[in-house]
TrEMBL record:
Keyword tags: ATP-binding, Membrane, Nucleotide-binding, Transmembrane, Transmembrane helix
GO cellular component assignments: plasma membrane
Topological relation to the membrane, as annotated: Multi-pass membrane protein
InterPro entries per the UniProt record, alphabetical: AAA+_ATPase, ABC1_TM_dom, ABC1_TM_sf, ABC_transporter-like_ATP-bd, ABC_transporter-like_CS, P-loop_NTPase, Type_1_exporter
Lineage: Bacteria, Pseudomonadati, Verrucomicrobiota, Opitutia, Opitutales
Subcellular location: Cell membrane
GO molecular function annotations of the record: ABC-type transporter activity; ATP binding; ATP hydrolysis activity; ATPase-coupled lipid transmembrane transporter activity
Protein name: ABC transporter
Transmembrane segments: 21-41, 61-94, 277-293
Gene3D superfamilies linked: ABC transporter type 1, transmembrane domain, P-loop containing nucleotide triphosphate hydrolases
Keyword RNA-binding: no
Domain ABC transmembrane type-1 residues, every copy: 19-308
Pfam families xrefs: ABC_membrane, ABC_tran
Length: 586
């Protein structure tokens, strides 16, 4: 239970409901453990079956009989309110945990996402939080009710045994109680291990599903349907296997505890026979034994739930406690609009191992430089560009903008000064207008439309069924590649940041889109420091500075005319690209 303590803070806002649920649980415990037994065995049965019972009026009989449903009614109300309020608390705590989980995902560095698959993260965010919610409400439901019931049942037993001559020896029947601890511990241990397997197997299933859904076209094109189904089947079968192990252990517990409690009752029966215990006392004590074992059985079951919840919590906390790595400094330098002088000073960088993919890179790009990054595949161009918005932290050296080390400013301040247009821009499943607005929240309608005009997107947007209010579909699926690119460029116009990072699309666009995009780009780059991961020779040639990457180093830099004569690698890359046409990568 200690593991859940840090989350108690989330109950603050609903303190009254939580206290209400505990009080209802206590009332339930008193009724189940004592009142029910007492009313039935000590009041109703003796009154109805005693020698003078024949003389009672119908009203008197009915009065005694009505006591039974009256007690059950109060117990039912206590159970209902306990369950309702506890569920409310559990759901509220989980709402916060889910939010924390999501917020953490927003703050974690990109490196983290390279280490975790999206299926695994989805499974932690959905299946594990669901399991935790189930545990919290289920365990919460019983955690006060059952111990209260046990306490009052034991109290009733001791009270009765001590007030009936010789009956105290009947308490020996409780000697079998400790026996119940063994199966509870045994099952709990196994369930914890299996629950961990179950949750991670759920991650595998979710991973297969999300990978499959993200590659629907490739699967059909390569005829991979059967292979995919088989892969999914294997994952689901493993899940089934682990699930059944859990069912086996959970189902084992209840009957075992019932059997142990029957041993106690059998012992009581033998003793009561020899000790001549009155039947009313005997029934009361057997009732109390039953009501004492029932909570033990339930506590065993909630122990299992708890173990499953703990394994889910472990997986959620792995994310909640994952180091942020890239965080704001304690005393950030105040940054408003930067000019855009980017400088790398002896920068080395490795993704995870010691293998550096950037090695001792030093370069100074004055504001307004349009800089093309070229080099063979894997040479480090994207990595270089990704260090500027501080998507990753350098291993050695430092990156500065306007002379300020990136680590000295707030991450949000830095990124507000950068616009990013990626190769395959992602649009959210929202209207075109709202997708544009992501460039700069708070922009006016006129500004948004002007940005769309600058990006040559305005006309195609107006020709959509609902103009700017047309929904773009999941990941912008209802727009063509060229249209998505223009929306992304319009977003960059709207942002109007001093630094622009552009990953040029490698796939061919139709010539009309291509021409629009080139014209938009020419306008967009004016007055900005631009890093273009360039794949078209026209872009490369027009750049004011070209950085040639090879195996993580900048081996040459300068304008096209100079590099063409001095850098053999650049000459080869450029000639190859020019020969192969606009679509071939550098
Ligand atoms: N997230 C990552 N995790 C681990 N290694 C990575 C990651 N991203 C890139 N790398 C590795 O870093 C090296 C440089 O990659 P980078 O993407 O910067 O090259 P690039 O020059 O942009 O290549 P391309 O032109 O093919 O996009 C490569 O060896 C690549 O395998």
């Amino acid at each position: 239970m200690r593991r859940f303590v840090p989350y108690i803070k989330y109950l603050k806002a609903i303190r009254a409901q939580f206290i209400g649920s505990v009080l209802c649980a206590a009332l339930y415990g008193i009724i189940s453990g004592f009142v029910l037994n007492y009313v039935l065995m000590k009041k109703v049965l003796p009154a109805v079956f005693s020698e003078g019972a024949r003389d009672m009026s119908t009203w008197q009989i009915a009065g005694y009989a009505a006591l039974v449903p009256a007690v059950f009614l109060v117990r039912a109300l206590a159970a209902f309110f306990n369950s309702y309020l506890v569920s409310l608390c559990g759901v509220r705590v989980l709402e916060q945990v889910r939010l924390d989980f999501f917020q953490r995902l927003q703050a974690l560095p990109l490196n983290f996402f390279a280490r975790h698959t999206s299926g695994d993260l989805l499974s932690r965010g959905l299946a594990d939080t669901n399991q935790l919610q189930y545990t919290l409400t289920n365990v919460g439901n019983e955690i006060f009710k059952q111990p209260a019931t046990l306490l009052f049942a034991l109290g009733a037993l001791i009270y009765e045994a001590s007030s009936t001559p010789d009956a105290w020896k009947m308490l020996l029947c409780l000697a079998s109680v400790p026996l119940a601890v063994f199966p509870i511990r045994y099952v709990g241990k196994h369930i914890l291990r299996r629950a961990q397997q179950l949750q991670s197997q759920l991650g595998v299933v979710s991973d297969r599903l999300s990978e499959n859904l993200s590659a629907t076209k490739e699967i059909r094109a390569f005829g991979l349907e059967e292979r995919e189904t088989n892969r999914f089947r294997t994952a689901v079968q493993s899940l089934f296997h682990v699930q059944m192990k859990i069912v086996k252990y959970s189902s084992f517990l209840s009957p075992t505890i019932e059997f142990i409690s029957s041993l106690g009752i059998a012992g009581t029966l033998v003793y009561a026979y020899y000790a001549n215990i009155p039947w009313t006392s005997f029934l009361f004590i057997v009732g109390a034994i039953y009501f004492a074992y029932e909570p033990i059985k339930k506590i065993g079951a909630i122990n299992n739930d708890l173990k499953r919840g703990l394994s889910a919590l472990d997986r959620i906390e792995e994310i909640l406690n994952a180091p942020l790595e890239i965080d704001d400094p304690a005393n950030p330098v105040a940054v408003d609009r930067l000019q855009g002088r980017i400088a790398f000073q002896n920068v080395s960088f490795a993704y995870k191992t010691d293998t550096h993919v950037l090695k001792d890179v030093t370069i100074d790009l004055p504001p307004g430089t349009v800089c093309a990054l070229v080099g063979p595949s894997g040479a480090g161009k994207s990595t270089f560009a990704n260090l500027v918005p501080r998507f990753y932290e350098v291993s050695n050296g430092g990156v500065t903008i306007d002379g300020i080390d990136l680590r000295a400013m707030k991450v949000a301040d830095l990124r507000r000064n950068i616009a990013l247009v990626s190769q395959d821009p992602v649009l959210f499943n929202d209207t075109i207008y709202n997708n544009l607005l992501l460039g700069r929240a708070g922009a006016t309608r006129e500004e948004v439309e002007q940005a769309a005009k600058d990006a040559f997107a305005h006309d195609f947007i107006l020709s959509q069924p609902n103009g700017y209010d047309t929904m773009v579909g999941e990941r912008g699926g209802k727009l063509s590649g060229g249209q998505k690119q223009r929306v992304a460029l319009a977003r960059a116009f709207l942002r109007n940041a001093p630094i622009l990072i552009l990953d040029e699309a490698t796939s061919a666009l139709d010539s009309e889109s291509e021409a629009f995009i080139q014209r938009a780009l020419q306008k967009l780059v004016v007055g900005k420091t631009v890093l273009i991961i360039a794949h078209r020779f026209s872009t490369i040639r027009d750049a004011s500075k070209i950085l040639v990457f090879e195996e993580g180093r900048i081996v040459a830099h300068g304008p096209h005319a100079q590099l063409y004569g001095t850098s053999p690698l650049y000459k080869t890359l450029y000639d190859r690209q020019q020969g192969a046409g606009a679509e071939v990568r550098a």
